Amino acid sequence: MARNRPKGSPKGPDSPVETSPAERRAEATLATPVGPITVVCSPDAVIGVQWRSPSVEDILPLGPSGDDGLPTGLLTETIDQMRAYFAGRLREFDLPLSLDGVSAVGRSVLTTLRDTVGYGTVVTYGELAQSNGRGVPARAIGGIMGSNPLPLLIPCHRVVASTGLGGYSGGERGRGLETKRWLLEFEGSLQRGLF
Question: Coil, strand or helix: which one is 16?
């Protein structure tokens, strides 16, 4: 399904002064069952998803979107899709994503994960390494998952160890494995209380 995506400023003699990419970023923090999640967007792509603890008045409620002061465009669409995901109405995100700053190998592994491991399924570190086909050792997959700048949108929580959950760098401080467990149970790929 096509999405309306914001475009950069028009160029010409009457155009406003070009701003740096950092100045054109927009962010919003959404309250979720796994803690507050901040989404950062450029005009063209989602560039970051992270758990952090902003002041309470900066957190958007999880409820239906409306006139909540968000800028229109990609940031609003991202927040709407995250709300739908946590409400159980969305299983696959349809957003432009940026992996700028991630190594070529990391981009390849994260893209393989996004494209092959769907909602309600899991893959082991070794299986992901094998399906990527670039000779990345299984032990390196964990490091790549830990550096994923777009958790949830690129579902690194779906990558598990062959003997259990493995690690997770997402979630609020000190609650990574609890967050991973919640997400897998929510998606139906892990029985409650299994790990």
Answer: coil
Tell me: do 71 and 51 sit in the same domain.
Answer: yes
How far lies 44's CA from each of 47, 54, 56, in Å?
Answer: 9, 25, 28
Please give the C-alpha separations between residue 24 and each of 39, 131, 150, 153, in angstroms, as whole numbers. 14, 37, 19, 21
Number of domains in the chain: 2
List of E strands, the chain: 26-30, 37-41, 46-51, 59-60, 123-124, 159-160
Residue 58 within any structural domain of the chain: yes
Range with the poorest average pLDDT among 20-29, 141-150, 151-160, 169-178: 20-29
Instruction: Tell me which of 52, 75, 98 is where a domain ends.
Output: 98
- Which of 156, 159, 183, 184 does the annotation list as catalytic? 156
> Over the stretch 54-103, which tens digit does the pLDDT of each residue have?
555 566 665 544 444 444 589 999 999 999 999 999 999 999 999 999 99
Q: pTM for this one?
A: 0.80
Q: Tell me which amino acid residue 145 is.
A: M
Active site residue 156: yes
